[in-house]
């Protein structure tokens, strides 16, 4: 039985204006709308489409994070995943949770669940790390296709079109494999209300990182989180002479 | 499903979808309620069917709007050189 493990991350919604906490130790997350990382939506969609084409038999959605991550797993189930696994990491450990921890968790789960394929979004829109797929591939020693914009499967071989600088690269890789989804891979479906309701009947297994033997203690220390610099207001100059004077003042000419 | 429950189902689905509306949930909720109330006296079954079809069309439009909005935002954020 071919199984796909798909990583889904709960992130602050893409439409929300991010604010830094006054103590500069992170960003404001309380009372802020969260949703599934858009690149992970693409990953789930791809896995579900493969299942619909009978190329794989089961799609498992995994999320590491606080208890609210279950909502994101629920969305994945509504999009067509068969079961969910929630690896609970909360509190200070979650704040310093890094791709290295998540990839160890995913690698371990892939072995336990006997997955043949791991699909993740190429990066999350909150920390923009873009490391998880690569590290999972490294830990498991599986071939890894990153930034996929097209995936074709024939038997146990995958033909993957990758988005690289200035063009596309087509590679063939053997399963088991790790893939990361780029923006143009597909157009994710909307998790409709009836499907969300039906998803409540699908099973979600709850685990802790300890159950999997993964140490999630902090490997980094957050020193400071800063807002990006605000663009300075421009001025309208009355004529060319003042423009030249201003430009000379600011050292542009 | 009876026509009555179809209408209720449509209202619930639209309410659910309004949570992602760019102008805010409250704006969406108010307008949704207004258009439903405007037609609450309708008894002609054929006309109601047409309205239901229109409602389902709006759902599809909203789905497309959200998808496009997300896609464009991501494209702007990650793929266009500034």
From TrEMBL, chain A:
Entry's Gene Ontology cellular component terms: mitochondrial matrix
Stored Pfam families: ETF
Domain Electron transfer flavoprotein alpha/beta-subunit N-terminal, residue spans: 24-216
SUPFAM superfamilies: Adenine nucleotide alpha hydrolases-like (SSF52402)
Subcellular location: Mitochondrion matrix
InterPro entries: ET-Flavoprotein_bsu_CS, ETF_a/b_N, ETF_b, ETF_beta_N, Rossmann-like_a/b/a_fold
One Gene Ontology biological process: amino acid catabolic process
Alphabetic keyword roster: Electron transport, Mitochondrion, Transport
Recorded superkingdom: Eukaryota
Gene3D superfamilies: HUPs
GO terms, molecular function: electron transfer activity
Quaternary state and interactors: Heterodimer of an alpha and a beta subunit.
Function: The electron transfer flavoprotein serves as a specific electron acceptor for several dehydrogenases, including five acyl-CoA dehydrogenases, glutaryl-CoA and sarcosine dehydrogenase. It transfers the electrons to the main mitochondrial respiratory chain via ETF-ubiquinone oxidoreductase (ETF dehydrogenase). Heterodimeric electron transfer flavoprotein that accepts electrons from several mitochondrial dehydrogenases, including acyl-CoA dehydrogenases, glutaryl-CoA and sarcosine dehydrogenase. It transfers the electrons to the main mitochondrial respiratory chain via ETF-ubiquinone oxidoreductase. Required for normal mitochondrial fatty acid oxidation and normal amino acid metabolism. ETFB binds an AMP molecule that probably has a purely structural role.
Record family assignment: Belongs to the ETF beta-subunit/FixA family.
Name this polypeptide is given: Electron transfer flavoprotein subunit beta
Organism whose genome encodes this protein: Frieseomelitta varia
UniProtKB/TrEMBL annotation, chain B:
UniProt GO BP: negative regulation of oxidative phosphorylation; respiratory electron transport chain
Residue ranges crossing the lipid bilayer per the database entry: none
Domain of life the protein comes from: Eukaryota
Coiled-coil spans in chain: none
Sequence ranges assigned to domain Complex 1 LYR protein in this UniProt record: 6-58
InterPro entries: Complex1_LYR_dom (IPR008011), Complex1_LYR_ETFRF1_LYRM5 (IPR045296), ETFRF1 (IPR052000)
One GO CC term, this protein: mitochondrion
Protein family per UniProt: Belongs to the complex I LYR family.
Name of the featured protein: Complex 1 LYR protein domain-containing protein
Natural source organism: Frieseomelitta varia
UniProt lineage: Eukaryota, Metazoa, Ecdysozoa, Arthropoda, Hexapoda
